[in-house]
Structures are given as C-alpha cells and as structure tokens.
Amino acid sequence: MKLLIADDHPIFRKGLYDILDKAFPGSTILECDSGDEAYKAVIAHKPDISILDINMPEINGIEVAKMIIEKVPTAKIVILTMYKEKEMVRKAMNIGVSGYIIKDFAANEIIDCINKVLDNKKFIGPTLRSEYNDLTIGKKGQGIAGVLGALSQAELKTLKLVNQNKSSKEIAELLFLSEKTIENYRSKICQKLGLPPRNNSLMLWVSENKDLLATLTEF
Q1: How many angstroms from the chain centroid is the CA of residue 28?
Q2: Among residues 50, 61, 111, 138, which is most buried (max CB within 10 A)?
Q3: CB-based burial of residue 77 (10 Å sphere; 0-12 exposed, 13-18 middle, 19+ buried)?
Q4: Contact assessment for residue 75 and residue 66, using Cβ atoms and an 8 Å cutoff
Q5: Residue 218 neighbours by CB distance under 10 Å
Q6: Quick check: 135 and 76 in contact, CB under 8 A?
Q7: In whole angstroms, what is the distance from residue 217 CA to residue 159 CA?
Q8: CATH number of the domain at 143-213, out of 3.30.70.1130, 1.10.10.10, 2.60.130.10, 3.30.365.10?
C-alpha cells in the first residue's frame, strides 16, 4: 500500500508517519510539506490514500483535494486538521473527500479511517459525528445535506442529469467531458451513496428519491 502525508509541521508529520508505519508494515509512506508538493506527488505517485492538512503553504488542503479529485475522480483523500467547524467539514465532504479527522484525535481514529476508506466507505471522526449527526451519509430519509453532502459539484451535476434520464454519453456532451469521466463520476456517486456495483443501481436509487433530487438547484 502507498500512503501520502501532507503537513507542514515536521513533528506532527513524524508522529503520524510512525503510527502508519507500525499499523501498515511494508507500506510506502510519502511525505510533503506544502500543498503544491502534495498535488504533484499525488499525480505522480498515485497513492492509495492521501492525508492532507488544511493549513499548508502555497495551496491549502481543501483546494488541493479539489484539484486532485477533478484530475483523478477515484482518488481517496482524508483531511486531517484542527478545523472542526461544521461548514468546513461539509465543504470538504462536498468536494468528495473520503474522510475527515480532527488532529486531536488522530492517534485514535486514523487507522480505523484508513481501513474504512480502503473499503470504499466514508469516515467522519466519531467526535464530529456526535456533534453534527446530519453529516452521516447514505441512509434514506436523511435529507439533502445528509444524503448528498459528500458529492462533489461535478458529481451533483451528473446526478441531476441522471435524474433527467440522460445517458452517460448525453451527460458528457452537456458537460463537455468524456464519457469515461462521466462513468467515473457515476461510479463515485454509487460508492458514496453505498449502492451495490450493479449497472442499474443508480437509476433505481434515483427513481426512489425523486423528491430529494427535486431540491437540487443549478450549480
């Protein structure tokens, strides 16, 4: 397994490195101390999971995550930060990150987070979940913020067009993207909504959630 840690505090980075090295022996662990370096390293080395701080020189972690996911929609990113404000968490999840952990609890939560993310599941630290229970995603009836809060803007646009019975080819033409990119978005949407990997699973979900999708506005 290949992991990437991006944080500009060398002492914290070393501590996290030691935790991951012990928990996942034999893994390759890359280190970066700036947002720009992190982006370049992810594109070049394609780690299985990238762990990003928010406050970093050159480019902050949220922007780095957005850039990475736009370039590689299947990338798995965990935000590890001191920011615990609800809107910051929601912003990160909207971009499409796979996990969000507060640094104070990193030692207790990071291993569980990585295992969940590797299993294509979302992870929000238990402390945050207890404070913001509407951040949990994937359960029917939770509302627009709960169910769709983890989707990126590109994925939301795709989902809205799926709801209009557009094919992947038609969506690609409307969004000026390749059909392969749209298929990647559809796959990510299914993962984030906890849907089985069947060809019609997303269409079935859409048909069952027409009222929820009707709340989607233009982006």
Answers
A1: 21
A2: 50
A3: buried
A4: no
A5: 5
A6: no
A7: 12
A8: 1.10.10.10
Separation of alpha carbons 207 and 197, rounded Å: 17
Q: Quick one: pLDDT at residue 151?
A: 77
- Rounded to whole angstroms, the Cα distance separating 73 from 152 reads 10
Give the ranges where 54-176 is alpha helix by DSSP (H): 61-71, 86-95, 106-118, 126-131, 143-148, 153-163, 168-175
Whether pTM > 0.85 for this model: the answer is: no
Task: For 70-121, write each residue's pLDDT tens digit.
Answer: 888 888 999 999 988 877 887 888 788 889 999 888 888 899 999 989 988 8
Assigned superfamily of 2-135:
Response regulator (3.40.50.2300)
Lookup: tokens for 88: 């910051």
DSSP single-letter state for residue 133? G
E strands in the chain: 2-6, 28-32, 49-52, 77-81, 99-102, 123-124
